[in-house]
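Quick entry between incubations.
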Amino acid sequence: MRKERKMPIFWLVILGILVGLTLFSSWLVPFEPNAMDMNHIYEAPNGTHLLGTDQLGRDVLSRLLIGGRVTLFIATLSVVLSSIMGIIYGGISGYFGGAIDAVMMRILEAFLTIPSLVIVLALQAIMQGSVWRMAIIMGCTGWFVTARIVRSEFIRLKEIEFIHMAKMFRTPLWKILFHHLLRNSLPAIFVVTIFNFAGAIFTEVSLSFLGIGVPPSIPSWGTMLYTAQNDLLVGAWWMGLFPGVFIFVTILCVQAIGSRVKQVGGQTHV
Amino acid sequence: MFKMENVTVQINEKFILNNLSFTVPKGQISVIIGESGSGKSTTLSAILGILPALATVEGSIFFNGRNLVALAKQDQAALRQRHFFTIFQDAANSFSPTQKMKQQLYGLTALRMGQTMAVFLAKMKRIVQDLHLPDDVLERYPFELSGGMLQRCMLACALYLEPAVLLADEPTSSLDMLHQQEFIQQLKRLHSQLETTVLLIIHDLDVAASIADFILVMKNGEIVERGQVTEIFEQPKHPYTRQLVAHHF
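Done. Structure below.
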């Protein structure tokens, strides 16, 4: 029991260190991430380049930290966007119910039948380009689960007595929606958002790895894995290993925190 | 004072209330008794206007000579807001778990009357003391209070608002014996202080006998017998009432 309580703190500390390193990467990086040094290409980790150099002699550690900032920025922006869209869609569907809910849910189910990665791929092919566009595309295709969770929370809450009382006492609709329904749905929204965040990191990495995500000129964990594909063949194992470890640990931390929050949420009244 | 006349409630073509008619005498405590599924809670929901969207209501619900069913929804709500207060079965569900009691009790009482927080605090602190609630109850969240305390918080609202009609659906069912007695005493005190017309739904016949002036016996969405407590418990006429009473005592 005691060990279980410590778990989220452990994962939070690890995630905090990773996020801190990427957030302050501009000051922490030992080398300019795009500075090429053709005299030191494919250098294995050593005292000067702690995580080695790539095919253009760029410092892998510096690119990893700057790249992490890009990946986490895309994940954060897309999750904020998808949460807003999911809350609005699910909230309207759940609160009004009836025919509105039926129509909105059929549309949502139609979206859910198509794997979101396929939709992202299609949109990315049309709108390909910047970090911002990628975050927007991921946000616009990542709200389906949030909408379902918000809908079910609103349906559950609106039948509880305090909502009946609010309606009976002519509480304004906006107050019922925001002060009562949304406020009491936040724990569930928080959990789904954490898992969406892990999913968004994975999507960015997957798309960039396939070469259709962030442009290769911008370092991100995904683009680093993309360029590492060929480098692994020449024995530059550090090119793929370190971005892979960072991605793995970050997603593991987020998933572990999400699972713990979900457990705790189920044990308390809120 | 308060009258239901030929009220029929249908949900998915199933009759939940069937031509229900009864009068709640002014200033008295009336109690509806009956088995689960007899339509007691639906009766209360119909009076409060909180039936599910699928439900259809026919008949008349008169309050002070005005038919609530015939009024526009806004007028119905305004009338209920001014004259009615209700206590639900599960006190824990009567409050939002994420807000402190101060904001919630203020919203349920003083805010409805256009009073400031300062006015609310001055009056509510006295009521809280009278009801033997902890001094810091207003600063607590609902999950930090017991079921009994939360029910007393609902009573505190009733004492603050002084409604003409108080409705309660099984208010004592989630309480232990000690808190049940305490709640009944406080409800009686509220009734004698304010002369409020009270309509209760109570499952426990002991509790019903100890608090009621007038009893309504309900079965399959209809009132099968009505009368003073002594009439119902000592000389029940309807076979169902006899069965209920015999089974219990």
